[in-house]
Structure formats: structure tokens, C-alpha cells
Amino acid sequence: MGPFWIANLIVMSVSVMIFAIILVSYVKSYLKFKAGSFGNIIAFSSILLMQGVIAIIIYYSLSLHFGSGLAFLLLAINIISLSGYIVLYKALEI
Fold first, then answer.
1. Which of 5, 9, 79, 84 qualifies as a FRET site for 19, CA 20 to 30 Å off?
2. Is 88 strand, coil or helix?
């Protein structure tokens, strides 16, 4: 496993952590306030959390068969996605 694959796994792990924080925060808020508007954010965060976990598993599998060319392209996409996730995290004011 090369450095680009490791970087991909790290970026995806950070994404998973961000959505885990969002999910836990909004579940706590939902249980405290019983506000229905939190349901959409909880569902959205859950889906993206699952996507991140699945991506980590797939990236590990891909790293065993493909080289750094694919890893570099995926890393570029993941860094852009992570940037968007960070903006979402800040926008939700957690």
C-alpha cells in the first residue's frame, strides 16, 4: 500500500469522524428537544457516515490491486469532499 492510498484512508477516516460527531450531536439534540427538524440531518449524516466506512473498506481492497495513479485521483476527489464536509460541519454550528 503506497502513500497515496494511506492518505486516502486518512482523509476518509477524518470524514467518518466528522459525520460521527454530527450524528451524535444531533441525536443528543433530538432526544433533548424532540424537534422533528433534526431527523433530516440525522438521516443525512448517517448515510454519509456509512458511505465513508464502506469507502474505507473499498479503498483498502483497491490498494491491493491498483497503483498510485488511481490513488492520486481518488485522493484529489476526497480532499475536495472533505473540504465540503468541513464547511457543512461549520455551518451546522456544532
1. 5
2. helix
